[in-house]
Amino acid sequence: MENLGYYNGKFGPIEDMVVPMNDRVCFFGDGVYDAGPARNFKIFAMDEHLDRFYNSARLADIQIPMPREELADLLNELVKKVDSPEHFVYYQCTRGTAPRKHDYVERPGNLWVTITPQVMSDGTKRIKLRSEPDTRFYHCNIKTLNLLPAVMSSQAAKREGVQETVYYRANMGNRVTECAHSNVSIILDDELWTAPTDELILPGIARKHLIKAANKLGIPVHEKPYDLDTLRGAQEIIVTSSSNLCLFAEQFEGKPCGGKSPEVAEALRAEVNREFAEATAV
User: Fold this and answer.
1) Contact at 8 Å (CB) between 74 and 16?
2) Angle between helical axes of 262-279 and 205-217 (0-180°, round to 10)
3) How far apart are CA 210 and CA 160, in angstroms?
4) Residue 167's domain spans which residues?
5) CA distance readout (Å), 54 to 115, 150, 151, 199, 262
């Protein structure tokens, strides 16, 4: 089939799937999710994504309705039912189905999975970025379904003709946090700088693999806060996500950026994509 949807044991084409109107996600965005790419029916970095998924559920007090190993087997089984060679595998667990009420009964939640065709960018085409004060909640480390701020920022980016929004905390010295649906890192003095994984950012899986690539290449890594002015003056700005593993910016806030450390940038891009290709090879 071209795509696949799964809900609590039932599956089929996404357009044929239905869910209860009183799934708590409809009223409260009450759930957590994770997602990642697959190629040749192999899901990339699945163990790391599942670790984060189950940790988000633990932090949100949501019960995923099956053990981790069983979910891994299910995802591996479902991805083989989709025809295209490259996919995006998305899964979420909502708190369950019940009449609308803020408090909840503690019981296993509802498991959703979607698998859709998606070709991974190799990162050779540079992108444009904008900035915006980070006014979201202080639980960014939980991959919650409450994504309205990210939706609004993504739409603003689309209207401006750029690909992503860089968030910063104005009340914390303009500290750069992350993007609307990505992590952001920089190259400074030919070294990699990326924000620490505290409660202000999501600990991205692609970010983790970028750090792994830097370590393999002998590029020093600093997991420390940096501010907006530092980002503006960086040699390179790097955006990482499970949708696009490693992208470099050519424009930030309407001004040219990047291209000042091409050898380091290309080495990182090539290594991240090499690992993905090797892990998903036939």
Assistant:
1) no
2) 120
3) 28
4) 127-279
5) 19, 22, 24, 17, 38
Residues 178 and 84 in one domain: no
Q: What is the CATH number of the domain that holds 271?
A: 3.20.10.10
Element (H, E) at 71: helix 68-79
Give the mean pLDDT of 118-146. Answer: 93
Domain count, the chain: 2
90 and 188 within one domain: no
Domain boundary among 117, 148, 176: 117
Residue type, 228: L
Distance separating alpha carbons of residues 156 and 109, to the nearest angstrom: 33
For residues 85 and 133, membership in a common domain is answered with: no
Q: Assign residue 94 the CATH number of its domain.
A: 3.30.470.10
42: left (phi over 0), alpha (psi -120 to 50) or beta: beta
What is the residue-wise DSSP string for 138-200? S-TTS-BS--HHHHHHHHHHHHHT-SEEEEEEGGGTSEEEEESSSEEEEEETTEEEE---STT
Beta bridge partners of 113: 6, 91
Catalytic residues: 143
Determine the angle formed by the axes of helices 46-59 and 68-79, rounding to 10 degrees. Answer: 130
Would you say residue 136 lies in a domain?
yes
Tokens coding 71: 């979910």
Q: Give the tens place of pLDDT for each residue, 222-244.
A: 999 999 999 999 999 999 999 99
Domain co-membership, 148 together with 82: no
pLDDT digits (tens, 9 = 90+) for 37-60: 999 999 999 999 999 999 999 999
List the structure tokens of 25: 């996600």
Is 122 part of a structural domain of the chain?
A: no
